[in-house]
Write a structure and sequence with these properties.
2 domains, ten-stranded mixed sheet, alpha+beta, about 55% helix, single chain, about 600 residues
Length: about 600
């Protein structure tokens, strides 16, 4: 009895020992292919996983609603999420239908016909302008390793007998018989929106296919030395540009200071001209009175030589001295005016002379700022004000001789007035001396002749003085425009100064950015390589994280086709012997008999 119990216990021990060994201690190498059937709007309808293993003892995990042995008639043992078998085939395949219908990517497909959104079922057999839009985004409820490391290839085929004018931005369009095949790629870790447009007639379309596999692209670091050297040259060139703009900004600032002095000097000059013009009219009026008085005195003496009384003669020197004093007063006013004019003209000349007389070729500057709209606009303003400054300087050079002649003309007029005043004073002295002489009549005749000559000469002087006053008036009117232009120029140079400062700030920032370009480019290249170099990715199971020895996991997805309902009776088909791959496709509804 004890022997029988011992044998039973030993047998039970080996049975119990065998089950755990098969269920938990077998490290089974596997591959997974996830097949998905999607609705026409991209939503998941069914997910199937074909798992493949080398033959022998197999332990696998997956939350399946159904499993199917695709390689043999041997039964699969399913306990919860554990699937096991000890098979004799060399390569074993089984299919599991996943309970959870979720992929690493969310796929949303929309259809428009003639601008109206329609479900795919309503498109079949229709005509018009078709637009298909697919939005591929991450499904954050699924392990992100697939989204971050897998590349999606999306293809759809359109029958050219039904579709024309096919366009798909960023897509590759190829011919496949009478079909146009549009292919798009979605890189790891990226979302994408895909758009396809076409003119369609009696529209139908096969399902959209999507495959996903690990992105494997070993990228070697390129030799960037030559490129870096070019960037360093660019940095040096921008540095020189920045230095030039700094000098330009400094020069414009000095020009702005000079333009403010120019405005002040021009204002004083304009005020002096205005006073000169106003005083000229007063001088002209006084000169007219003097001219009339001289003529009256000369005529009075001529007419009254025979009846001229001693009292009248004694009063004549005083009248002549009064005329002389009037001329002296006018000459003094002109002297003060000349002094003020000289100061204003000197300030104007100094201010305009401070404007740099240089010729700039802006070609290099425009080439340096090409592509930067803000800097180009600022440079346009700079060149506009530069041309305005050149214009003011050129205009001043054209009229400088006339401005310079004003002071000399004033000096001539003052000299003439002083000379005439001296003549009148001399006549008064001679008359007083002649009063003591006996031959008064002879002296009067001599005086009358002198006054007549003086009156005639003064008439010519007065005529010249009138022309001079008219010229001053015209000069005042013309200079008002010059003064307005100078004020406008100064305002523009102020804006130019601001623009030059901003330009210098911009080129300084540009220089700083460009000087960092070599390091930034190197870092960017390394970052791109790091982002797309997935060579260190270790395949994982999509089905269960309990499956730790996975060689490969890939996805094969397809949407339902857009097709017209088939009202004909299906033909009677004879049973067909299918191979393994045909069985897989048939189970997924993708096998075409």
């Amino acid at each position: 009895m004890k022997k029988i119990v011992s044998v039973l216990l030993t047998a039970a021990f080996f049975v119990l020992l065998g089950v755990p060994a098969l269920s938990f201690d077998v490290s089974t190498t596997k591959e997974e292919v996830v097949y998905g059937i999607l609705a026409t709007d991209g939503s998941v309808q069914d997910l199937y996983v074909v798992n493949s293993f080398p033959g022998g003892a197999i332990v696998d995990y997956g939350d399946y609603s159904d499993v199917y042995n695709m390689s043999s008639s041997e039964p699969l043992l399913v306990e919860g999420d554990l699937v096991s078998i000890d098979t004799t085939v060399d390569r074993f395949y089984y299919q599991g239908t996943l309970k959870k219908k979720a992929l690493p990517w969310q796929v949303a497909i929309q259809y428009e016909l003639n601008g109206e959104k329609l479900p795919a079922a309503d498109l079949a057999g229709r005509d018009g302008a078709l637009k298909i839009q697919m939005d591929i985004t991450q499904n954050k409820e699924v392990n992100a390793a697939f989204y971050d490391n897998y590349m999606l290839q999306i293809t759809l085929a359109l029958d050219t007998e039904r579709c024309s004018g096919i366009k798909s931005p960023d897509g590759t369009i190829a011919n496949a018989g009478k079909d146009k095949v549009i292919a798009h790629f979605v890189l790891p870790g990226q979302d994408k929106t895909i758009s396809v447009t076409a003119q369609v007639r009696d529209f139908v379309m096969s399902g959209i296919e999507m495959t996903a596999m690990p992105f494997v692209m070993r990228i070697d670091m390129p030799d960037t030395d030559e490129f870096t050297q070019d960037l360093n040259k660019l940095s040096d060139a921008v540095g020189e540009l920045n230095d030039g703009v700094e000098e330009l900004s400094s020069g414009v600032d000095e020009t702005h200071s000079g333009s403010r002095k120019l405005v002040d000097g021009s204002a004083k000059f304009a005020d002096g001209l205005e006073k000169l013009s106003n005083n000229s009219q007063g001088i002209l009026n006084a000169s007219a009175k003097i001219r009339t008085a001289l003529r009256d005195v000369a005529q009075g003496i001529e007419q009254g030589i025979g009846t001229f009384s001693l009292e009248d003669l004694e009063a004549l020197p005083g009248a002549l001295r009064e005329l002389s004093g009037g001329l002296t007063e006018v000459a003094g006013g002109l002297t003060a005016l000349k002094t003020g004019y000289a100061q204003a003209y000197s300030a104007l000349h100094l201010a305009i002379s401070s404007i740099p007389d240089v010729d700039l070729d802006p070609t290099g500057l425009y080439m340096a700022v090409a592509g930067d709209g803000v800097l180009t606009a600022t440079l346009d303003g700079l060149m506009g004000y530069y041309q305005a400054g050149k214009t003011v300087k050129g205009t001043y050079a054209a009229v400088e001789e006339a401005f310079a002649a004003v002071e000399g003309n004033l000096e001539t007029v003052i000299g003439s007035l002083d000379a005439m005043a001296g003549i009148l004073t001399g006549m008064a002295d001679e008359i007083e001396q002649s009063l003591s002489r006996m031959d008064i009549a002879a002296q009067l005749q001599k005086l009358q002749a002198g006054l007549s000559r003086l009156a005639d000469n003064y008439g010519k002087f007065h005529t010249g003085l009138g022309k001079y006053a008219g010229g001053v008036k015209d000069l005042v009117g013309g200079y008002k425009e010059v003064n307005r232009g100078i004020r406008s120029l100064s305002k523009g140079i102020g804006e130019l100064n601001t623009g030059a400062s901003e330009l210098y700030e911009g080129t300084s920032e540009l220089h700083e950015e460009v000087s960092q370009l070599p390091d930034k480019v190197q870092a960017e290249i390394e970052d791109i390589i790091d982002r797309f170099d997935k060579s260190d990715f270790v395949p994982i199971s999509f089905v269960s994280d309990k499956n730790t020895n996975v060689e490969m996991t890939q996805f094969v997805l397809k949407t339902m086709p857009v097709e017209k309902p088939d009202v004909s009776k299906p033909p009677i088909e004879k049973p067909e012997n299918l191979n393994l791959w045909q069985k897989v496709l048939d189970l997924l509804g993708l096998y075409s008999r």
